[in-house]
# Entry
Amino acid sequence: MILVLFLKQKMPTLYLIPCPIAENALHTVPPYAQEIARNLDVFIVERAKTARSFIKSLGPSRPIQEMIFVELSDNESFEEAEDVFREAVKSGKNLGLLSEAGCPGVADPGAVIVALAHREGVKVVPLVGPSSLLLALMASGMNGQRFSFHGYLPPKRPELAKELRRLENQSRQHDQTQIFIETPYRSQMVMEVALETLQPTTLFGVAQDLTGEAEFCRTLSVKEWNKSGKKTLEKLPGVFMVYCGNTEFFK
# Structure
């Protein structure tokens, strides 16, 4: 009852709705976040197909065909999404913002809508849910006090090697964990270049399919990675980390 009244408040609200980051992992989204999502009918999303499937799995309060889903894309001007946002606010409706996976506004284009909400005086409410970046950092054993996220690194091997050396130096200078992500089909190449490029004592962390059935989290020095048998990665979403600070516990 309290939740229903909360959703019907006069001031429109933009809810930042987390999505599972692995298949069959709906349990990682808290019940309260699911309840809010199933009672909304206007969504701004990274990918409409994924968003519809997720909302349908929650058992929404109205038919999915009656809901509004507008996509965001890094290559678009966001005009359609902004128009839908303003129309919903004008009508006093709450909205939901969804990423392709994980938490919206982090490593996805949703931040532009959050910024619009602040400019328009619309309340922004982030909901608790899975974040691959934080889960990977938690499981890494690296510095969780100082860290930096870099998104995707250059796709070609020479440029990637150069960027990895830069991140290694940055980690050493600032005692910072350096975090980046890669697509499933490029994860193996990233692993190979990292182990060829980074210093033997540098820590390199890999986290794949977090919260999923094939979950894998491992941190070793480059020297130990090269000695180990696990140097072939699955074609799964991955978070990678580089750290050159206190590595005593890994010796």
